[in-house]
Amino acid sequence: MVWGKEIARNLYGLTGDMRIQYLDISDEGHLILKIGNHEIDLYELITKNDLPGAHIRILPLIRKMMVQVVEVFIRAMKKHNSKLGFIPIYPLKSNSSKIVIDTIWSHGEKYNWGFNIGTIPEAELISNYSNKKPRLLVVDGVKDKAFIEKLIDMKNNWEIIVDIESERDVEILKEYPELKIGIRIKLLSTTRSPWSKSSGLYSKFGISLIDFENIIDKYEYLYDRSVLLHVHAGSQIPSLEDLDKIIGETVSIYTYLRKIGLDNLTYIDFGGGLAYPYTHFKKGSGFSPDYTLEEYAELIVEKTMGLEKFDAKIVFEGGRYIVAPHRITVSKVIDVRPYGARPRIYEDVGYGIIDEIRKAGNLKELNNVLRKIREVITRLTSRTEASKENRILLEKLITSIEYEVSKKIEELFSRMRLDEFIEYIKYPSPLLEYLITPSMRVFVSFSVFNHIPDKIVVDQYFQVVPLSRLLKKPEILAILSDLTCDSMGEYGDFYSYVEKPFKEKLIPLDLLTSTDKKLLYVPNMLVKLNGIPLHIPRKGEKYYLAFLETGAYQDMLGMNHNMLSGYPEILIDIIDGQLKIKVVNKSYASKYPV
User: Fold this and answer.
1) What is the dihedral of CA 195, 198, 200, 204, to 10 degrees?
2) Predicted pLDDT at 284
3) In angstroms, rounded to a whole number, what is the distance separating the alpha carbons of residues 158 and 131?
4) Which residues of 323-339 are buried (b: 16+ CB within 10 A; e: fewer)?
5) Whether pTM exceeds 0.90
6) In Å, what is the CA distance from 78 to each residue of 23, 61, 110, 274, 340?
7) How many CB atoms are closer than 10 A to CB 202?
8) 3-state SS record for 312-372
9) What pLDDT, on the 0 to 100 scale, is given for residue 348?
10) At residue 377, what are phi and psi to the nearest 5 degrees?
11) Residue 504: pLDDT band with limits 50, 70, 90
12) pLDDT for the residue numbered 346
């Protein structure tokens, strides 16, 4: 069996540009957190507190991401000798938990880090923070007089810019000359992300250029008070090509608005869109960008070089990128069940299709048998009478097939060459479908609806990593089921991508789980598995899973399905060089089985 720390790092996505900076595997096979000069064993941290699960918040990661953004833009500007200003702001919608805002607020003082809000509750939250120096506050969303009056109360402490997106907004703001105006224009450019419908001319955000021109003719005060061009590109844009079009179009609009007399239009805000790498590769998952933060900054700086004559200032609004990695959701495995049915004792049910499996001499023959099996099972299922005897016979057949196929795969793979297998597995087939289908269902002490709601909303990908036994080869491929009484409360997505820099010689059997003979990986090839590679918990063992990078939006979108909201929190921080760990809200643990 070829397995080790290097393959485990690759399989569980710990080799990406982001995760490699703060996650690793210990010599005991535990997932460890690296912060500054400190290493924290996450398995020991969660087990010594005897929790069913927890949100682990790593506050230094928020500060680290903020510093990275500023330093990367500064380097890009120096490289291109850009004289433009740079102002980062944080959109509260990404995560408005108090501990998150406190961290961004305090660390952002040195960078004059501003904020973006869109509702009265967000205005009330941010009004509790007092500035030594007014910071930028960009306000979008639907406005009314109550909202505007709240902003007026805050105007001495903030540089407030209120976006207009309709004539109604313009009419309301006419009565408040002390507030500056942002123009939120709809782009024609669209994106290819899960949020693509929120970009382009048919987006819910912004105003068309034609409508704006009609409005400015009626409300001349916009010429003097408009200071910001703001666009909405859509969240998590994976393509640098799409970003190039969006940034180029925005720069063209900005230049046009200056030419028609908006002489005070200083700020240019490209909106969100900077994609966070939720996978450790750049090969078509849709949840990671095909570019780096450095390339993103370089593109913006290059595209805005011609705006120096306007004394323009770039506004950076990447909330997801700042807060996504700071929260790791950890949940305990509480039960393991067969994915389908499993007989108490294996029985040879005597069907001819079983003999066909046993006689298959190569993958092609096995694949043909699997295709035939699918037809047989479909036919028998549709015709079988609902008697106990027939049901049990059919279940025995299905489980016998799975048993025999697993044995046959082990036999064939043990004598195949690796290149033969890789060439065969490149294309869809019943065999490949079998290899990536889970054999087990693992029940976890959490709720998809509360802890990773974006799985329900946009089919978001979250990397799953066991906290322990990482130096042991995974035994099974399993789908995760939560505690809710809802069929959507499951998670089974796993992008397998393992580069092969290691020296060991592989055979196809090395690429399979050790117990159910399901596919783990194919060297240098992206494979989407329909289950998570896991181990079977031993009797009395505490086995936990980590869902990485749940720090953006999940806190805000979490639902109270089956009244499973809330989770204990473990706060990790470094204060004056000293590691601080605090467990809060431990009482929430009573809602979850242990």
Assistant:
1) 170
2) 53
3) 8
4) bbbbbbbbbbbbebeeb
5) yes
6) 31, 26, 20, 21, 60
7) 9
8) CEEEECCHHHHHHHHEEEEEEEEEEEECCCCCCCCCCCCCHHHHHHHHCCCHHHHHHHHHH
9) 59
10) -65, -40
11) confident
12) 52
